[in-house]
Helix-turn-helix transcriptional regulator (Paenibacillus chibensis), 103 residues
Amino acid sequence: MDILQTIKAISNETRFNILEWLKHPEEHFSPQEHMPATCDFEGGICVGSISAKTGLAQSVVSGYLVKLQKAGLLESRRAGQWTYYRRNEEGIHRFIEQLKQEL
């Protein structure tokens, strides 16, 4: 894990907020009605829902989500025409542990 890449990813207020919201998605987003019942991706939220919450264009939010995913903080799953994102708890834990060791 590139710790600087991860720090840069969370240095943007909106990206940081997205991570916070996805910690408890049921409190911040409506149920994901488009997610197929066969899709085993609990806690996943579609880009459109995240975009609506931020008030930013979907293309901007998609870029933010990709940056967070590349940093190891999110994971995604495509189901039909929608892409769902959720926190990568293992990646977040690794980042925190690495930050503790390096600082």
Summary: The domain at 3-30+39-102 is CATH 1.10.10.10 (Arc Repressor Mutant, subunit A). The helical segments are 3-10, 13-23, 25-28, 47-54, 58-70, 89-102. DSSP finds six helices and three strands in the chain. The mean pLDDT is 94.
